[in-house]
Amino acid sequence: MTSTEIDFEELFDVAPNPYLVLDADLVVCHANRAYLQVTGRSREELAGRYILEAFPGAPRAARDFGASLQRVLNSREPDVVAPRRFGIPVEGRPGEVEERWWCRMSSPVLGTDGAVKWIIARADDVTELMHSPVIREITPPLSNEATGIAAQVYARSHDLEQLN
Questions:
Q1: How many Cα atoms sit within 13 Å of 131 on the Cβ side?
Q2: pTM (2 decimals)?
Q3: Per residue in 121-134, pLDDT tens?
Q4: Which of 18, 47, 138, 151 has its CA 20 to 30 A from that of 126?
């Protein structure tokens, strides 16, 4: 089977992990179904918007995510943001926000010239972990990057439990 026979957009859209695609100007180009589901947003609300304007409301989380995306652009390497609190709108209750904790990882997609063409951003909901007594035991000695990786491992293990 050749890559021309594979519908990559379809595969991306049904991927079980929440992904967002940004261009090099940090404008949202696409969000898969899992991303839309966990964030409570629609494609129309996100597509074509600068990422930090698409998710207003949590200055520290936005600042950290923006800095992470800038590191991806500068280094052309993946970057991880440790868990940050960022609420999402409650469906059916305008103006009400539910507290969620997110761990983000962003990976560059390079063009033929070596410049960042796209950024694939993954958002893992680690709210359950952040409310767990275990996090208070392991977090203080860990760096922000290690805490982010621990949260991602937790999120992946939680996904695996759900699938099993």
A1: 9
A2: 0.75
A3: 998 888 887 777 76
A4: 47
- Centre a 10 Å sphere on the Cβ of residue 42 and count the other Cβ atoms it contains: 10
> DSSP letter string over 32-58?
-HHHHHHHT--HHHHTTSBHHHHS-S-
Q: How far apart are CA 79 and CA 85, in angstroms?
A: 18
Query: Hey, is 134 helix, strand or coil?
Result: helix
Parallel, antiparallel or unpaired: strands 79-85 and 101-110: antiparallel
C-alpha span between 66 and 157 (Å, rounded)? 27
Are the beta carbons of 22 and 121 closer than 8 angstroms? yes
The SS3 assignment for 131 reads: coil
Query: Are the C-beta atoms of 100 and 124 separated by less than 8 Å?
Result: no
CA–CA separation, 123 and 103 (whole Å): 6
Are 59 and 85 in contact by the 8 Å Cβ rule? The answer is no
CA angle 35, 39, 43 (to 5 degrees): 60
pLDDT tens-digit series, residues 91-104: 778 777 788 888 88
